[in-house]
Amino acid sequence: MNGQNQNGKVISSKGKGRGCLTWLGRIMLLIIGLSIVGYIYEPIVEAAEMKAYPPPGQMVDVGGYHLHIHCTGTGSPTVVVESGWGDMSASWGWVQPEVAKTTRICTYDRAGMGWSELSPEPRTAREYAKELHTLLVKANEPGPYVLVGHSMGGFTVIVYAHDYPDEVSGLVLVDTQDLPTSNVATYRPAPKPGGTPIPALLARIGLVRLLGGPLGSVENLPDGDKQAYTAFAVAPRSVQTFIDELKGMPEGGAQARAVTSLGSLPIIVLSRGKDQDAKHTAAQTALLQLSTNSQQLFAEQSGHPIHIEQPQDAIAAIVKMVEIVRQAIQK
Prior knowledge:
The chain has 331 residues and is of the alpha/beta class. The chain has one domain (53-179, 188-330): Alpha/Beta hydrolase fold, catalytic domain (Rossmann fold, 3-Layer(aba) Sandwich), CATH 3.40.50.1820. Helix content is 44%, strand content 15%. The protein is built from eleven helices and ten strands. The strands form two sheets. Strands 3-4-6-5-7-8-9-10 form an eight-stranded mixed sheet, sandwiched between helices. Strand 7 (145-150), helix 4 (153-163) and strand 8 (168-174) form a beta-alpha-beta unit. The longest helix is centred in the N-terminal third of the chain and has 40 residues, at 13-52.
């Protein structure tokens, strides 16, 4: 069909179609062009940020790839921190310097997060525990360890204490993520890392960096830690690992759920005071059943990231556990 414009000239439907196709073609060319620019620009920015924020600790070969570990302070037992899902060592910027005044403390980055390189293995609690064990041995950081696990990191330290009992002298579970319920029948095994999910692809062309907003409570971190965290959080490697860790979480939770007792190992459960619900409250209380020597503390004014929102409570819980372990050794 044909139509007329305001001047009475006849405009064919074919002409309209060609005009739309022309504009669509221009838009597609613009998108492709911007994507190419982003693909070139992203690694340049990453290299600049790696230079601006070098790893504060050491990079250790754990079998074909390197993990970053940062240890400060002196004394025993050594505190080893396991961060939560998609988190990195820089998020402990308030906690580490204070604990280091009492004893030695090590934070590290899981494979693919922070300064650490990617691992080829599925992202599950048992794999994290194995990698951490190798890292500590290769870094010459002997036990016994007080293991601190935040959120999903609680799964890892529970499994670590079960798999390497002679190396662990105490646990601090910082608002550990809810374990699967006992009636969970099946879970999907974690896949190997990799693939190109859409978020990782968007990060690779710089869109995550461009569109990413403020990172919530991370804004409260000390200068230096905050900038490093923000820079690495939007890197393609971190975005890919974020997805991989999510895929591995059901299996990791099941691995931790299978640990029903750690004997009389000292355990402190540090729970958030805000944003609680009955399910989380019950899950936190249930963690006390892991040991005959357990206690629960609360960070009354904090949400889930206690080590950022109320770091003094995280510090106090860790130092308290260090004192418990030291007193046990003296007896």
